[in-house]
Design brief:
Blueprint lengths: L1 H6 L7 H11 L16 E2 L3 E3 L2 E3 L1 H17 L6 H27 L6 H10 L4 E2 L2 E2 L1 H12 L2 H22 L6 H11 L2 E8 L2 H9 L4 H11 L1 H10 L1 H4 E2 L2 E10 L6 H19 L4 H8 L11 E5 L6 H9 L9 E3 L2 E11 L2 E2 L2 H34 L4 H4 L3 H4 L10 E2 L2 E2 L2 E8 L5 E2 L3 E2 L1 H9 L17 E9 L6 H30 L3 E3 L1 H4 L4 E2 L6
Parallel strand pairs: 1-20
Antiparallel strand pairs: 2-3, 2-19, 4-5, 6-15, 6-18, 7-12, 8-9, 8-11, 10-11, 13-14, 16-17
Length: 532
């Protein structure tokens, strides 16, 4: 069938469509694929899955797609984030190879007719609504080396799609589950609440009398707890080298021609001369740097350790001493000038030396929780007695002119102010807006009626909370039938995603997978494509 399709080619080559097809189908080597590599050595495989090599071109294409998506969403794609995207691309091409291998094991076959039909249906290969053979052959030969190579990729992709389609068919959703999901989406609450921040309670805890004596006593009484904390937080006491640096970037595409590269080098050299003559590095960075993420901060990148920056940048920065400025450094992003502000040398803090600091932290935490909980319980008692949130938690302006006793609740010298969650649904469990994960609070909120004070003091990561149900909206079951189909579709798609993740995860556990980490780090580019 494929041979027949090639033989029946048309003579007209539409160059406009050819340009479009190149954009759609050529493996992208622009910024975000191999252009983010260092331009050093090349590699012929990005991963090996059960011995089968995954081509770097597949990784480049996947990474390019991810990068375009995030840039279209307006997100800032800096060095560390690019590395995360690279790992995502790596995971996705490995997942695809695993699924394709499993499809072959399951005997899933894609015929020549199916491949030909899929290719003919692609809009990019059509001219005036008809499949254009000359356009097709020219485009795929340029992008993939030959029509045969492209057709093999299409066959594998169709096999993957068949495999995933069969997998999705196992996703079942019952009527009860659809009803339950709908109810959760239409069971709404809104709370007014007050949080008693542990950070402020720590201030009061340290201000208590005999603080240092309490710390010494804690060291004696809680030796085992201190030692456990030390063991569970090795990164805090075994510190790796870090530097705080500023940089100035003159951006230039790695694929730019010699003229653009030379112009960028001359620009960074001129900037380096200004710094050498004594101009303030931060001011020059604000005026000249092409890095939007650090420019307004005078090029300040904060502290960073090994593995967080491009390799050449990191190597140069880690050789500098405080206040020293590097020579111009070339990375995949352009030319940099780097100034190190501070160096934190590696340090291993022994347990005996760490004990007082650990004791202070643990004691602060214990006392802060006790103080915050005590104040929260006092406030809850008043709320239960019938006082409103405004009466229990007056702000300073409201206190003026009122009778004595209407004092605001304070912690760490600051007023504890009431807040509101806004409306949320039962489907968002256990997360409460503006509060965070709070399973017990969430459950009680869904049980409460409008105006009811919730029965407890609820622990959250930032401090105990008391709350009142300001609004409650129960679902109107008469409206279920008109929304049933929409909810069922959403639930089924979610179930399919869960099944896919679990299935691929199990496949990976049972497979031998080797990642070429140089691609994740952006240190290599794909080897040249061999044409037929």
């Amino acid at each position: 069938m494929l041979d027949t399709m090639r033989a029946n080619s048309r003579s007209v080559l539409t160059y406009v469509l050819f340009g479009i097809i190149i954009i759609v189908f050529v493996v992208s080597f622009g910024p975000g694929s191999k252009g983010c590599g260092t331009g050093g050595r090349t590699e012929t495989w990005v991963a090996k899955v059960n011995g089968a090599a995954v081509a770097p071109s597949e990784f480049d294409q996947q990474f390019s797609q991810l990068l375009r998506i995030y840039r279209q969403q307006g997100g800032e794609v800096n060095g560390p984030f690019q590395m995360r995207l690279r790992q995502m691309a790596m995971d996705q091409v490995i997942q695809r190879e695993l699924a394709q291998q499993e499809a072959r094991k399951q005997g899933i076959v894609v015929s020549d007719e199916e491949v030909a039909s899929a290719i003919k249906a692609l809009p990019g290969f059509q001219s005036n609504g008809q499949f254009d053979m000359e356009l097709y052959k020219s485009a795929v030969s340029s992008a993939y080396g030959s029509p045969g190579k492209f057709e093999e990729l299409m066959r594998r992709d169709l096999g993957y799609q068949k495999m995933m389609s069969l997998l999705r068919e196992t996703a079942k959703v019952t009527g009860d589950e659809v009803k339950e999901a709908w109810l959760a989406d239409h069971d709404r609450a809104a709370l007014e609440f007050a949080r008693f921040p542990l950070a402020l309670a720590r201030v009061d805890a340290k201000a208590s009398s005999g603080w240092e004596a309490q710390v010494k006593d804690f060291v004696v009484r809680s030796g085992a707890r201190i030692e456990q904390y030390y063991k569970e937080n090795p990164a805090r006491f075994d510190k790796k080298k870090r530097v705080r640096a500023r940089h100035i970037l003159v951006k230039v595409d790695e694929k730019a021609g010699a003229t653009e590269q030379d112009a960028a080098k001359k620009e960074i050299d001129a900037i380096a001369d200004r710094v050498k003559k004594g101009e303030d590095f931060a001011r020059v960075a604000t005026e000249t740097s092409d890095d939007p993420g650090s420019k307004e901060r005078g090029g300040d990148l904060g502290f960073f350790g090994a593995g967080m920056m491009a390799k050449a940048f990191e190597e140069a920065a880690f050789k500098l001493t405080p206040s020293e400025v590097s020579a111009p450094v070339k990375t995949q992003f352009g030319w940099h000038l780097i100034k190190v502000e501070e160096v934190q040398e590696p340090e291993k803090v022994p347990l005996e030396k760490a004990k007082p600091d650990i004791a202070r932290e643990l004691l602060e935490t214990d006392l802060a929780k006790k103080l915050a909980t005590q104040k929260a319980e006092e406030a809850l008692t008043r709320l239960r007695s019938g006082e409103s949130f405004a009466e229990v938690f007056p702000v300073e302006e409201e206190v003026k002119g009122k009778k004595k006793g209407a004092e605001p609740v304070k912690m760490g010298g600051q007023i504890v102010k009431p807040d509101e969650t806004g409306s949320f649904t039962a489907s968002s469990s256990p997360n409460v807006p503006r509060i965070g994960p709070a399973p017990d609070l969430f459950a009680d909120a869904m049980k409460a009626a409008a105006g009811q004070v919730l029965p407890g003091v609820y622990e959250t990561t930032s401090g105990p909370v008391v709350a009142r149900a300001k609004e409650r909206e129960r679902p109107d079951e008469a409206k279920f039938s008109e929304m049933k189909s929409e909810v069922e579709t959403r639930l089924r798609l979610s179930r399919e995603s869960e099944i896919e993740r679990a299935w691929v995860g199990d496949l990976r556990k049972r497979s031998k997978v080797v990642e070429n980490k140089a691609f994740v780090l952006g240190e290599v580019r794909a080897a040249p494509v061999e044409l037929d």
